[in-house]
Amino acid sequence: MKPLTTVLKRAFGVLIALVVLFEEWGWEPLQRLMARIARLPGLRQLEDMVTRLPPWAALIVLLLPSLLLVPVKLAALWLIGIGKGSLGITVIVVAKIVGTAVVARLFTLTRPALTRLSWFEAIYGRWVAWKQSVIARVRASWAWRMGRAIKRSVVARIRRFKQSA
User: Fold this and answer.
1) Is the pTM higher than 0.85?
2) Rounded mean pLDDT of 5-29?
3) Among 24, 146, 151, 162, which residue's beta carbon has the most beta carbons within 10 A?
4) What pLDDT digit, counting tens, does each position of 60-94 carry?
């Protein structure tokens, strides 16, 4: 039983690391994209209202997009269940990207209010420390180093190709 537990813990750790890395890689670029979109008329005022919310209202605003995506994800699972797997997976991926973009922007806007909640500040501090340790372990791994080496090699080849063309 112990080998199975070890395998399951490692698999769960890899899954969590992948989620953290996706959030890390996607969070900032998507948040910047949403900030550009927020320059549209009307959205600037909406963002200003969000930044002035009290802590508990800010928490509700932050959680709302995740709750609104539950029916979308259930519909995607239904699509997979009726044999439209590609469409269902596409819906899940698009919902994840859009959801991450919206939550990233809302978190940027609501973080000052949220950190006034002592329990949120404590949890957030632990989350940041844990996430940084996961990222450090992933970056120290053989797979990460090999991937970076391959990326550098491909980028160098593309540059040489462009210069010779």
Assistant:
1) no
2) 74
3) 24
4) 999 999 899 999 999 999 999 999 999 999 999 99
Three-class DSSP labels, the chain: CHHHHHHHHHHHHHHHHHHHHHHHHHHHHHHHHHHHHCCCCCHHHHHHHHHCCCHHHHHHHHHHHHHHHHHHHHHHHHHHHCCCHHHHHHHHHHHHHHHHHHHHHHHHHHHHHHCCCHHHHHHHHHHHHHHHHHHHHHHHCHHHHHHHHHHHHHHHHHHHHHHHC
Residue 2 corresponds to which tokens in the numbers above?
A: 């112990």
Burial of 5 (0-12, 13-18, 19+ CB in 10 A): exposed
